[in-house]
Every structure is written in C-alpha cells, then in structure tokens.
Amino acid sequence: MATLPAFARSNEAPVAIPRPQRDPFGLRSLPYEDVFFYCKRIDNSRLVREPDPKAPNACWSAVGVASVILALLLGVLAPNVASTLSGYRLESLRSEQRQLLDERRTLELQEAELLSPARLDQLAKDQDMVAPSAGQVVHLERGADGAVAMVK
Amino acid sequence: MRRLVYLTVLAGLWGGAIFLKLFSLQVLHHQQYARMARGRQELRIEIPAPRGTIFDRDGQPLAMSVPAESVFIDPRKVDLEVASGLLAGVLHLDRAQLYGSMKQALENHRGFLWIKRKISPQEAANLRALHLRWIAFQRESERHYPNGPLAAHVLGSVDFEERGNAGIEKSMDAVLRGEPGRIRLLTDVKRRGIESQLVSEARPGSSLTLTIDERVQFMAERDIAAAVEEHHAVSGSVVAMNPYTGDILALASYPTYDPNKGPRPGENRLARMNHAVSVPFEPGSVYKVITLSAALETTPLTPDSLINCHGGVLRLPGRVIHDSHSGLGLIPMAIVLAKSSNIGAIMIGMQVGQQNMYRYMRAFGFGQRTGIQLPAESPGKVRKLEYWGKTSLASVSMGQEVSVTTVQLAQAASVIANGGMLVRPRLILKKGDRPVPPAQPVRVVRPETAITMRQMMEGVVLFGTGRRAKVAGYSVGGKTGSAQIFDTAIGHYTHTYNGTFMGIAPLTNPAIVAVVTLNGTHGEGGFGGVAAAPVFQVVAGEALRVLDVPKDLPEPESPPKTLVAKNEDMDDLSIADLGSNQPNILEEGENEDGGQGPGASGQGVEVRSASSQSPVVPNFRGMTMRAVLTEAAEKGITILPDGSGVARLQDPPPGSALHPGERIRVRFAR
C-alpha cells in the first residue's frame, strides 16, 4: 500500500534519474509493481473531545448575532412589504371608490328620472288623482309635541 | 502564473462588459428603457371631472353627467373581418360600415379608431366578457336631462364632447365644464394597482342652481302646450318671474324638444327656438300699461281723468283711424285700460309726447337685452326718435311699431308689481355654493304710479278684457293684448294674432308676474283675453299654491265661472287697416256690448242664478266706491261701505237672494 504522498508523487512529472543499465534480456518490470497497499486499522475510540467552556457561549453568540441580523433584515424589509401590500389594498379601495361614485351618479340620475314631474303627473292621472283646487290644501299646524297629525 | 494572468484578464473583460452594458442600460438608453418599463408597469388613469350638475331652485337635478365608456381599437393589430363581425354583433352596428371604416383607417396607417362612443353599461359588460386584449375602453362622460323636455330652452344642450351649444349649457359652459385629472398607477404583472401617483388634479365642473322651479316650469310648459294646440297657434311662451328679485320661476317655450336627443331630420325648426327670449313680436295692447304709466308720471292725468275716445273715429295728420267700438266717448283713463281702448290709449299717448314715450320705453327695458343668462337674446326693436313717423306715437301708444320679447314684458310687469323698480331677470341663483346676488334695481316710476297702475290692471281682470285670468283666492291684475301679425311678404297685417296676457298676483303683495304669449293664433278665439289669460290663470294659480303664497281674497263658494258672454275679449285687439301696408293704421275691433263698460255705465257684473228669478245681490267686487254707490242707488240697495279703494268683500255674497230691505256690507281695500 502506498501512502498518499507517494501516490501523489507518482503522478508528478518524472524526475530525471539516471537509469541503471538495463539487462537487455531481463523482463521489464510492471508499472507500480513495487507498490503495495494494505489496510491500517486505527482505533479512535479512546479519543475524547476536551470540554471547552467557551463553546456554548460562542454558539449562543452566533445565534444571537444571526437573530439580530434577521431582525434587522425584517425591520428593513417589512415596511416595504407592508407598503406594497397596503398599496395593493389602497389601489383596490380607490378603484372601488371610483366605481361607487360612478354608481352613485347613475343612481342619482335614475332617482331624478323617477321623480320627474311629467312621470309623477302621469302616475297621478293613472290613479285618478287631480290637482287640488284653491282652498283644498290645508297646512297643518304643529302641536305642542311637534306632531302634525292627530292620533286618537 | 500565466493561468492567473489569463483568469484576471478574463474576469476584467467580463466585468467590463457588464459595466458597459449597465452603462448602456442606465445612462445611454435610460429614457427608452424607463419608458418601456412604464409602459409595462404603469397605467395612466383619468380621474373623472364630470360636468357640473344643474339644479332647480329646490335642488332637483335638471341636467347631470354620468360616466360612460367608449370603445376603440388599433386597426393595425386586428383581423378586420373577425373584428368587424364581432364588434358589430355586440354593439349593434352595421358590419359592412364598420368594416369599411376599419379598412380606411388601416389604409391611412391610423393606429386608433373609435368603434362606438358612450356605449351602454350592458354593451360594455358584454364586450368585457369577451376578454379580448385588442378591445380598448376609454372612460368618458355623458350628459343626461332626467326630466326630458322640461326646461329644454333654459337648459339647452351639449354636443358629443360635452360642450354647451344652447341655453345655460352654452352661456355658462366655462363654469360647468370640468378638467379631468390623471394619475399614474404602478401595477404588477397581473395589472393590479400597487401605487398611484397624481399627475394632475381633477377639477370638476361647478354646479349651477337655477331660479327655475321645476313644478312651476312643468305647469307652464303643460299649459302653454295645451293652449297652442287648442288655439292652433304656431308657438307660445310663458315667463313667470318674482318681481322683487327678478328670479325666473318658469320660462317655457313651445314647441319644444328633448335635449337628450340630438337634432333629427324633419324636426320642427321652431322647436329649438326660445320664443320667450329670442323671438320678438309686436305686443299690442299689453303695451298700454307702459303708455299709461308714462302718462301718470309725466302728465296730470289720473285714473279718473276723462279721455275722449271720439266715438270711434280719430283723425290724425294724413290718416283717419277708425274705431269700430262705436259709442266710446268720454271714459275714465282706468276704463281705457280695462276696455283696452286703442283710441283712448292714443289720446293718452299724445299727451305723453314722443320724448317722454321714448324715454319710458327705454326705462322699462324695451329695445335692449334684459341680460338674462341665455344666448341669442333679442333686444326687440325700439326705433330711435329720429326715425319716428307722424303717426308713430299713436302706434307706439297702443303697442305697434315696437317689438318686444316675452321676457321683456315680464320685466316691465315687474316694475309695476314691485313698486316701480326695474329688476333684471335672472336665471342663476347659485354658482356652486356661492349665491349670485341679483342686479341692483333701478327706479323707473314712482311707487304711487305703480300702485295706481296695479289698481287699474285689476280692473282689467275684474270687469275688463282679462276676466279669464281670475285666480280663486287671489287678487289679480293684468292686461291683455291681441296684435295682428304683419306679413312682410305682402305688406299687410294678417288675420293671425299674437295673443298676450301680462299679469300680476296677488295684487296686495305681488309674488309673481307672468306673461303668456301665443303666436300665430287665428280668429277671435286667439285673442289674448281668450287664449292667453286662461293659461295665466292656471299657471299663476298653481304657482301661487306651490309657492305657498297666502291668499288675499276669500275663497269662492263655487269655482269661478265665465259670468258674461259678451265679446269684450276683442276690445284689446290692435287691428291695422288691411288695405294699407302702413304698420300704424289703427282700427278698433268688434264690441258687441256697445261700448257700455262698467265704468261708462257704472255697472258691475250682475250674477243671476239660472233657477232663480228673484233679485240677487250684485257683485261689487273690484268696483270703486263711487261705482258701487251709483249702482246701489240705481237699484235701491242700501250699502254699508267700509274702508277705501276697491270693493274686496261683500256680505251677503254675490248671487245670493236679496231680501227686501236687506243691506249689503261692502269692504273696500287697496
């Protein structure tokens, strides 16, 4: 088994080493035939992390910093988000207001058409009503209690 | 090392490219991209600024604008065949015509074409339901007149762009018209609004409150229409006015039109003319009010002054004027007015003189515009003194050689009604919330002259030519007029008339003056006392009731009826000699009662019930104390007079049985 540095070195460019004189009749060695791999057993069970009293503080500090950063981010972004959402709501309400104003004008027109003197005159004629002659109109005086009608 | 250099150069180039692109986006093409972004993200919305509403004096809307939508397309972006078929079907248009206009717009490279303007809400909903992006809507405003033809000549109308083209809509266009505002609306990808920015503020048109009373206007229009139809007149007009403020309560002209609809081919060309304001006419006998007022102001004449009517014939330089009212000799000036004697008026006018007559014509507002806020007002015609002929004074004295409008007559009647002040008629009560003060009145005649004229005008209604103008419960004064219409084509007066009645009610505290004119009436039935006075009676009666004016006379037990069938209605006729083309040759009309008016004979109108032949109580109402005492002495009746002035009340009432020895209590008042 070759070590990792050895393995790495094996990939490096070969260094010029003076070659020994080859036996012209000898077999060529295979690549990496001089390299042997084996498994080395390492027992880490006896290793125990040494308690660090500062670690929890550091952790909590990190959490706190993250929370602060998050809060700051939310503080910066939230108004924008709220503004955007309010903008949607506001524009929706404005649009609704314009529609309602339009609708009100249309209804006012309808009311005016319904109260047209010509229409009322025709309705009165249809119900056999006639215009009051002189003396037929009686204006009631308000009583002490403000009522103009007499209740029995 | 070399790799590092390559990497650095590459990063530099990359950064440089980004920088250049950013520079291009943010600096070089900033405007272009900003515009493109706005086009995608922003909507421009028009803030409506509707044309001002026109109200009557009680706040009832007479004209108002409501939102409407118009449809347009870009012809370059649609398939003309499909688009024309679709739109024509939904909007009820002619498909071939629509296709033709689309094609023409496309050939002219126009990117905008109105398909239909001011569509109905239902049509808009149907189009929106198609969800087609190439159909675009434009928000507009549409004028509506909820009462249809009511007060059409006062209100006028607007064109398609809502610009006034007649009536108040035209004269007050600058006040009524609004300026729409604009906002920029930032939208998201679904075109929902996020934020809006005001570009320009909307300036809605100011509302107007008119002096018109919708109810009085309706009655005036209804009754003048009925009178025009009944008397086969060409046109008619009514003006009802508050004599103290000049407020026009009703201004009706007939024939009329519906301002909701545009002019149509074949429409009566007279329908859109305001006859009360724009069409002058010879007033005839109603003008005698001016003549007699000038006489009271400038001469020693009084209502009791005797005027020589020359037995019906008057010789003027170069002209003989015949009066067919035979038998009218010396009569009091009050009877001249009540009987509408033309020769009497001429004799009074002669005493007034040209200078004074002209001065009072102008002072009463004739020959000049009243200043009413309506377009195309006619000033009428009053010729300058240097153009008066030898008989012009005679003609003017009885209402010829002068032309006036109905609203001018109402203005002149107001002078008598309010105690001698000329009050300009007005139509605008408020602009927005700001009241419009009436014009400063100008004194024309003394208060005592006005009161005297009122009393004489009451005689016209009580026993003269205007009896049909009586209003139950109210004292009424007035004057009738029936002027022949001069045909300029043939140079003669014709047998068509302008029948007029000018009235004031109640006389004790005038609340209303009204002038009724019917143009182009025919025959005796078209005279002012016959055709116009009944319209006054109805309009004034209804107006006084609507305006809640207290009565100044007791209620009659039965509805007033036509008491005498004499032909006195014709007395006010101003007839020119048909054989002459001169406009001032005068001839009296028929008078079947032999000229025996109440003043001449001292008689009141006697009431006899059809079923009873026993003596009945005469009607003394409206008679002077002298006349009452004279008649009572002739009939052997004992009178218990109380007060002074004209007889107002009597007990027992007229028409009741008169028992032997019974005394009649008569209360006089001014």
Q: Could you explain the architecture of this structure?
A:
- With about 150 residues, chain A is mainly α.
- Chain A contains 3 helices and no strands.
- Chain A has helices spanning about 5-10, 55-115, 115-125.
- Chain A is rod-shaped, with a radius of gyration of 52 Å.
- Chain B has about 675 residues and is α+β, with helices and mostly antiparallel strands.
- Chain B contains 19 helices and 30 strands.
- In chain B, strands 2, 3, 4, 5, 10, 20 and 21 form a 7-stranded mixed beta sheet that branches.
- In chain B, strand 24 and strand 25 (about 510-520) form a beta hairpin.
- Chain B is elongated, with a radius of gyration of 35 Å.
- Mean pLDDT of chain B is about 85; it is low at about 560-570 and about 575-615.
- Chains A and B meet through helix 2 and helix 3 of A and strand 3, strand 9, helix 9 and helix 17 of B.
What order do the helices and strands come in, and which of them pair?
The complex is a heterodimer of chains A (152) and B (670).
Chain A: H1 4-11, H2 55-114, H3 117-126
Chain B: H1 2-28, H2 30-41, E1 42-47, E2 54-55, E3 61-73, H3 80-91, H4 95-107, E4 113-119, H5 121-128, E5 136-144, H6 152-155, E6 157-158, E7 164-166, H7 167-171, H8 173-176, E8 181-187, E9 193-200, E10 208-210, H9 214-230, E11 235-241, E12 248-254, H10 288-298, E13 306-308, E14 313-316, E15 319-322, E16 330-332, H11 333-338, H12 342-352, H13 354-363, E17 381-382, H14 392-397, E18 402-403, H15 406-417, E19 421-422, E20 428-431, E21 434-435, E22 442-443, H16 447-463, E23 477-487, E24 492-505, E25 512-522, H17 528-546, E26 573-576, E27 586-587, H18 598-601, H19 625-635, E28 638-643, E29 646-651, E30 663-669
Parallel strand pairs in B: 2-10, 23-26, 28-30
Antiparallel strand pairs in B: 1-8, 2-3, 3-4, 3-5, 6-7, 8-9, 10-20, 11-12, 11-25, 13-16, 14-15, 17-18, 19-22, 20-21, 23-24, 24-25, 26-27, 29-30
Helix pairs in contact in B: 3-4, 9-17, 10-12, 10-13, 10-16
